[in-house]
Amino acid sequence: MIEPLTPNTQAILLLTAPLIAGRGEASRDLLSLGDYNRLARILREKQKQPADLLGPSALELIELCSQPFGRPRLDALLGRGFLLSQVVEHWNTRSIWVVSRADSGYPRRIKAKLKEDAPPVLYGCGDIELLDKGGLAVVGSRHVDDDLIAYTEKVGRLTATAGRGIISGGAKGIDRAAMRGGLQGGGVVIGVMADSLERAALARDNREPLINGQLVLISPYDPSAGFNVGNAMQRNKIIYALADAALVVTADFQKGGTWTGAIEQLEKLHFVPVFARNGASAGKGNIALLQHGAQRWPDPQTSEELNYALIGAAASGTAQPKQATLQWVVNEDSRPGETKPVINPPEGDNHPAPIRVLESTSVSAHAEELLTTVRKILRQVMVNGATEDELAILLNITKPQAKAWVTQLTGEGLLGKIMRSKPVRYRTVTGGDRLL
C-alpha cells in the first residue's frame, strides 16, 4: 500500500515536479535545485515548512518567499493542485511512491552525503527502507561482451552471498548484469534510474523481487521521463551515496557517465572507496582510474574475501595522516596466545618510534589512553558499517575483544546497530544536516 503524500511533499512536488502523468509538457517555471534550496533557506529562516505555503496563512508567506522568483511564478506552481491529484493517482496505480527531503523517510545516506545537492523529491517502487542498508555499487559501460556480463553477474551473486547489497544504475550492460546477479544470489538490490522508472516498475522481470522486498527502484526524475545524458550523469552521485564501496567494472577513457562519475568520486566527492577492475583486459579507462587513485579490485572468490576487501578499503579510505595507530604484539609476560595493545606515535616525528607496552603500573591511565585511541579508530573504521567478526579480522584482535569494544561504544552512543541487518552490523553514529 502506498502511503499518502505528506503536506510537505505535496508542496515540494508543486514547486519542482513536472506533474505530466506520462504526457504533455512540463511547466517552464519549475524551481531548479538551486532555486528550491534558496526557497528552503528562506523558509528555515522564518521557521516555516514547505507545507505552510499551502496553509491558511499562505498568502503572506508566499509574498515573503517570492522576491527571488516573482509572485506570479510561485502562484502558478502552487496552483497546480488538480494536476497533482491526477498524477498521484497515476503513480499509485503503478505502485510508485514519492518522498521529499522534508520527510523523515528520505534516505539518510543521500541527505548526509549530498546535503543541498540531494534531490528535493525521490520517486520509487519497492521497500524504501532498503535504501539505507548500503552495499557495493557496481558500475560500467553499456556496450560490453558476454564474458564481461558473466563476470559482473558473478560479482553480483558473490556480493549477495556476502550479505551485501548491490547498487547500480539500471542501464543495460554492466548495471543490469550486476543487479541480475545480486537478485540471483538472493541479495538486496537498489536500482537508481536516470529514466523510465514507470516502465521499470511495471516490467515483468522486476515484479516478483519488488513484491518480496528484494528490489527497490528509485529516481530523482519524473517516473515517465525519457533518457537524458545530463540526468544520467547526475544520478551517479546518488549511486555512490547509497553505497559503502564502489567497483568500476569497465569505463571508457575520458568519456561517458561511468568515467565521469568515478573521477568525480576520486578527485572531489570522496563518498566511498572506489575499486577498478584491473588486469590484462581492464582497458585504458580502468588503468587511468587506477592512476587517479582507484584501488585495485582484488577479485575475491569467497564472501569472506569480499567482506575483508570492503572493510579494508573503508579503513584505508578514512585513515587520517599523522594519527596514532593501534598495533598488537605478543608480550613476553603474556600467556600463550594473549596479546597486549601498544600505541605507536605518528610517523614523521624527529625521534625514533619505539613500541611502548602497557605495563601494570598506572593501569587506569593506560586503559583510558587505549580506549581514547580505540574510539578514534573505530569511529573511522565503522563509518560504512561492519560486524563484530569483520572488525576482529580488520584489527587482528580476538572476537571477544571486538565485541567488548563495540558494546562499549554502542553504550556511549558512538556506534549504532544498522536496522534489519543480518548478521548484525554496526556503524558510526553521525548527525547529518537537516534539509527540507
Structure notes:
It is a single chain. The chain is of the alpha/beta class and 436 residues long. It folds into 3 domains: 7-93, no CATH class; 126-301, Rossmann fold (3-Layer(aba) Sandwich), CATH 3.40.50; 319-428, Arc Repressor Mutant, subunit A (Orthogonal Bundle), CATH 1.10.10.10. It is built from 17 helices and 14 strands. The chain has helices at 7-16, 33-45, 58-65, 71-78, 81-92, 108-114, 146-161, 174-184, 197-202, 204-211, 229-241, 256-269, 283-291, 303-318, 363-381, 388-395, 399-411, and strands spanning 97-100, 121-126, 136-140, 166-168, 189-192, 215-219, 245-250, 274-276, 295-296, 325-329, 340-344, 356-357, 415-417, 426-428. The strands form 3 sheets. The protein has a 9-stranded mixed beta sheet, sandwiched between helices. The protein has a 3-stranded antiparallel beta sheet with strand order 10-11-12, with helices on one face. A two-stranded antiparallel ribbon has the order 13-14. Helix 13 (283-291) links the parallel strand 8 and strand 9 (295-296). The protein starts with 6 loop residues before the first helix and ends in an 8-residue tail after the last strand.
